[in-house]
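Fold sample X.
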Amino acid sequence: MPESSSPASTAPDSTTSSADSTTAASTSPTTPAEATAPKRSRRGRPGYDRETLINKATEVFVSRGYDGTSMDTVARELGITKSAIYHHVKSKEELLHLAISRGIRALDSAVETESLRENVTALERLQLAVRASVVILIEYHHSVTLLLRVRGNSPLEREALEARRNIDAKVRALVEAAIAEGGLRSDFTPGLITRLLFGMVNSITEWYRPSYPVDPDTIAEAVTTMAFQGLEA
């Protein structure tokens, strides 16, 4: 933005060279407004930092499908250039990794925390793990949805599938412990119970939207109640 004209008493005379004028302008004191003005990034679209980029790209992958979405499509949907995306990530696969990693870490941490809880029964630990998984799934809705849709078409996707199996194994261990303690019926196998529990929890990705008129804690309570107590009044 051009600087304001100086008062006549301090303006250079007509013999001052253009180079001297440029030097004088460049060394003039910074005004208070300039000193406090926020500095704008020279790369990408304002507001699209790394985290925002990952969030928006995750939504695009979920809505269009990862395999069928090019970086051109991501850039167009976000309204930025591909170079702005490559400022933050090296490839579409890295973007996928960042998109699903947050959901994996959050789910694994929640299940692990409840699995190690002390002074409660195995059944209570299982119930707490299921409840926490629902809350995490809603909080990281797009990330977990993307995680559930990978099919092992690349080393990264196979790694994600392995991470999912590890989480499944932790829940199955809780199911086995609850059966051994007598907290769950033993006529159903641990594998079947685990699949049914995850089937109920994971189905939330198909219908939940941020505008849904029920808060996450209430949904988590409903899922846990249905899974372990049924719907009888």
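Fold sample Y, listed below.
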Amino acid sequence: MDVDQLLGRPERWASVLGWATLAGIEFGVIGPFGSYASHLSTRLTYWIALFWVGSLLLWPCVVAGLMLGPRRGFPPLFSSVAVVLVACVPLAALGAAGTWLFWPGRAAGMHLLEWYGLTIVVALPAMMGLLWLELGRKAGARSLFRLGPARRTVTALPDHLLANALCLQMEDHHVRVHLHGRSSLHFGVMRDVVAGLDPRRGLQVHRSWWVARSAVRRWHQDGRSVTLELVNGLIVPVARNRVALLRAEGWLDEDEALRA
């Protein structure tokens, strides 16, 4: 996903604020949470303004969650929900201020946790619905809402893990994905997983190992044996029949070698 496509394009913001306006009109007509007793124009003004402010605050946070969460190994949808829950704190304060302005009697009878709870009840489904409307119809965004293993083949690994993998390690009928500071084990076939990866990003250096080029810190040679030292400290063996390929691809720079 490209951040510019989600935040930087005017047509994207026009779409986001358009949906916010429709939601504000709907809430203004319905008048939930005790707002129905006021005039229609007051309700429309309050709810449309609140949805606009909420979109301007929450949409960038959701996008940040989508982009930054997977870098730490978290599923995109999980990280998006997490940032929405945090961003609902200032949004709840803004909603409370608006309620004090339009309905001071109603505001006086509410507690802090009520403001936060009501904000989550409205904002979380609204943002998840907006994600579905804006991204769910695109092939590249389907994985955002794929929470379980249903309809996945046994060799499919989560895209957000593969995108940040330092290396892959075969363990019997499973593939271990090594990330910065952690690893996770998934049922799959190594050769099928590697076949779906971009060869420009990394290579299978051994029957049991695939390594991302950017993850290699240096390489070691002991006689005819070659190993790769990765940025997370792992030492990965290189099969002898892969040494020539790695040398041809520029992986085995003499200046980076450590010989035993």
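Sample Y note: The two ends are 43 Å apart (CA to CA).
Also: Residues 137-155 have pLDDT under 50 and may be disordered.
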